From TrEMBL:
Domain named Glycosyl hydrolase family: residues: 285-740
Signal sequence interval, chain numbering: 1-21
Pfam families given in the database record: Glyco_hydro_92, Glyco_hydro_92N
Alphabetical UniProt keywords: Signal
Glycosyl hydrolase family 92 N-terminal domain: residues covered: 33-279
Any one of the GO CC terms: nucleus
GO molecular function: carbohydrate binding; peptide-N4-(N-acetyl-beta-glucosaminyl)asparagine amidase activity
Name used for this protein in its record: Alpha-1,2-mannosidase
Signal among keywords: yes
């Protein structure tokens, strides 16, 4: 690793010239800037700030460039590494999604000479922003620090599940008053505020309020209210509100989507700690969250220690090492933090949460938490299978959360956000998540298979009110989605084929073997949109005519409206549950060879596109064609080229941990066929990997012998000292799950070679 890169990483991890650097907790090497940069389709869209593992409150800086020109696609998570101004610190964020929502309860400290200057600040959006420099940032799991150059204030942040804790240290400047602005109507997505209100309690020195937003997704289910309660460890001397660009001194309440409040601290008060509790239920619940999660307002340092210990407890279950590639360790640990950040814990203190029916519920005793913000089209492929792999209790809670959505909302969700259906993306891939849990025999006794099978039957055969498939009656009649009825004909048919295969798995596990056969038959309907002339999957109308691209340019047009977020090449191999290579095994190699020279992520790669979900499984499909060497070759190439330690080091939107989890699995040397108990073997990036599954004594130890940048091919694999006879496949139950006879360790040994191994002795 080059010295310049080491220094760059140290800057990323530690910051420079920071008076708090000496108190930094020891974490494994990482850079949480990864995924905060990139342009266009290459933007990672990750927020930068603080949260607890899986926490609902994601507190961080929303940033802008010098010209204050909003580039929306670069700011879906609020923060962009290329920016040099912090607009505000908001308390909720999407996590790497390709859409803007959340971004509420905006707070900014500043210094002013008089209220006229303050009025100038609040009279325009981002008028109170401040310049900042990365050299004055510290970024760690659960802790963020930055110096605001314009306002001369050091900001420190930490967060529990629903409480953001701020500590501001003001430079003492003559004739400057120390001020905190609470922009109650702020939303990251401009214009998303539907209504807001704020109240200043001058007796208890408390600020309360709410903002009701209608963001890109939340508006689809009628919007979302976020309530907040703010308190301080010191009293203020003056206060006021603003509305429509006008300051109203000593008024303690206001409302509207251009309003907020401010407090002025004593001039001698150079440091203050602020506690911000949020709730999606009520102001009273926000106050309860605030009291319970801060242990009645412990100090900033105490709470930071508690939060960071939660992170250390999670991270310490994973150990990787590669002396010849320290950057791989940084990428792994960073991806691990991002994976441990989502989905969103939805239940609040005392286990209460806002349901899909709009009512307040208490989580069942058998669940540790209720979860939401499940971008299922993305996370079913890698993120949730990765959680299941290392934390089966949490995976069970996620599936139980989906079934709670069904109970309260009536339908199986496609992309649940907060407490609502969004209808985002295609397919009914919750089918696959449920199948994944059941096929790996990790489901607990509380999963009601009768309820599950009823929900799966409904989504496959009836028009749901929410998140429905294409008309099931027509789909069953034609055995594909006709192009003249829906322009997503081919992608929908491919998706439903995979979904129905997963439903067949669940029906089979439930003992409904005849019904399972029906769904397995439906899982072959992808064949009906395969055009034997072009050897591609293409739209087909009700009379059987194909509408394939007509020339090579059309085949590689990623904006072709016949395909969802892709082109004909991107969907050529999207049959994970079957082997599409029987049609043309060489085409997959062409797919990767033509994709390799494409280095820009600004626009989609017209061939293999590492930054979007429908291609994530493609590299593993060589295993089905007895060309495991090509899986190993291209998987290792992608680890080194599509993923880097730079801020633009993700190939696209992280999508709630999807890209990060792809890296985690691939770097460990195996990858899940979601919906099954099967993993496919690749080329591990480390010499040693150790993973301790949560709430068990089960340890997976992977030793990789003779590994190096050139020794990328697998010569043989041993499982607990014996040749793995199922190579290049692993089974979750037979190979990676500790048995019930007190087995506490599983050991895999990979032996690597510089030359491809085209046949394996078994």
């Amino acid at each position: 690793m080059k010295t310049s890169n080491i220094l760059l990483v140290l800057v990323f991890i530690l910051g420079i010239n920071d008076c708090h650097a000496k108190t930094i907790t020891e974490f494994p090497p990482m850079s949480l800037y990864i995924g905060t940069d990139g342009d266009g389709f290459g933007a990672g869209s990750l927020p930068l700030g603080v949260q607890s593992p899986y926490g609902a409150l994601r507190l961080g800086a929303d940033t802008s460039n010098t010209l204050n020109i909003p580039i929306i696609f670069n700011h879906l998570g609020g923060y962009h590494y290329s920016d040099n101004h912090i607009n505000i610190f908001s308390h909720t964020h999407m996590f790497g999604a390709g859409v803007q929502d959340y971004g509420e309860v905006g707070i900014m400290p500043t210094q002013i000479t008089n209220t006229k200057q303050l009025e100038e600040m609040i009279s325009k959006r981002n008028g109170y922003r401040s310049a900042f420099r990365h050299e004055r940032e510290v970024v760690q799991p659960g802790y963020y620090q930055v110096y605001l150059d314009t306002h001369k204030i050091n900001v420190e942040l930490t967060a529990t599940e629903q409480v953001g804790i701020h500590r501001y240290s003001y430079d003492n400047i003559k004739n400057k008053h120390h001020v905190i602005l609470v922009d109650s109507s702020y939303t990251l997505q401009a214009g998303a505020c539907n209504r807001s209100q704020i109240n200043i309690d001058t007796t208890n020195y408390e600020i309360t309020g709410l903002v009701f937003i209608e963001g890109s997704l939340s508006k689809r289910f009628g919007g979302l209210a976020t309530y907040f309660v703010i308190t301080f460890d010191h009293q203020w001397t003056d206060f006021g509100v603003w509305n429509d660009g006008k300051i109203i001194e000593k008024q303690n309440e206001t409302d509207g989507c251009s309003s907020g409040a401010y407090i002025i601290l004593p001039d001698e008060q150079e440091q203050i700690t602020m506690y911000v509790g949020i709730s999606f239920i009520s102001i009273d619940q926000a106050r309860t969250n605030l009291h319970m999660q801060t242990n009645m307002f412990q100090s900033f340092d105490s709470l930071r220690t508690i939060v960071q210990q939660k992170w250390l407890d999670e991270l310490s279950r994973f150990e990787v090492s590669a002396e010849w590639d320290r950057e791989a360790e940084i990428k792994f640990n960073s991806a691990l933090v991002h994976s441990l950040s989502s989905p969103t814990q939805w239940d609040e203190s005392n286990g209460v949460y806002l349901g899909f029916d709009g009512q307040i519920h208490t989580k069942p005793d058998y669940m540790q938490h209720v979860y939401t913000d499940l971008s299922i089209w993305d996370v079913f492929r890698t993120q949730i299978p990765f959680i299941l792999f290392h934390d089966s209790q949490r995976a069970n809670d996620i599936i139980h959360s989906i079934m709670i959505n069904v109970e309260q909302g009536g339908d199986l969700p496609k992309w649940p956000l907060a407490n609502g259906y969004t209808g985002c993306m295609i397919g009914s891939h919750a089918d696959i998540l449920i199948s994944d849990l059941i096929m790996k025999k990790e489901h607990d006794q509380h999963l009601n298979l009768t309820q599950v099978t009823q929900a799966l039957r409904k989504v496959a055969n009836q028009n749901q009110v929410h998140d429905a498939r294409f008309d099931p009656t027509a789909y069953i009649k034609y055995q594909y989605v006709p192009y003249d009825m829906d322009h997503d004909s081919a992608p929908l048919t491919l998706s439903y084929s995979y979904d129905d295969w997963a439903i067949g798995n669940v029906m089979n596990a439930a003992g409904l073997t005849d019904e399972a056969k029906e769904y397995y038959e439906r899982s072959t309907w992808f064949e009906h949109v395969f055009d034997n002339k072009t050897k591609f999957f293409c739209p087909k109308n009700a009379t059987g005519n194909f509408y394939c691209p007509e020339n090579e340019i059309e085949f590689i047009n990623p904006f072709d409206n016949r395909y969802v977020e892709g082109d004909a090449w991107h969907y050529r191999f999207f049959v994970p549950h079957k082997n599409p290579l029987e049609y043309d095994a060489n085409k997959l190699n062409t797919f990767f060879q033509r994709g390799q020279p494409w280095t820009s992520t600004l626009l989609p790669n017209p061939y293999y596109w590492p930054g979007n979900e429908h291609n994530l499984f493609s590299v593993w499909q060589f295993n089905y064609a007895n060309r495991s060497d090509l899986t190993q070759k291209y998987a290792r190439w992608l680890l080194n080229h599509a993923y880097t330690v730079k801020p633009d080091g993700l190939p696209g939107n992280d999508d709630y941990g999807t890209m990060s989890a792809w890296y985690l699995f691939t770097s460990m040397g195996f990858y899940p066929l979601s919906g099954s108990s099967t993993y496919l073997i690749g080329s591990p990036a480390f010499d040693r990997i150790k993973i301790t599954r949560k709430n068990t004594e089960c340890v997976l130890l992977i030793n990789v012998h003779n590994n190096s940048p050139t020794n990328i091919y697998v010569e043989r694999v041993l499982l607990n000292g014996k040749i793995l006879l199922t190579f290049p496949f692993l089974d979750h139950i037979d190979h990676l799950k500790c048995s019930n006879d007190n087995q506490s360790n599983i050991q895999l040994d990979f032996f690597m070679s510089p030359t491809p191994v085209l046949s394996y002795d078994k």
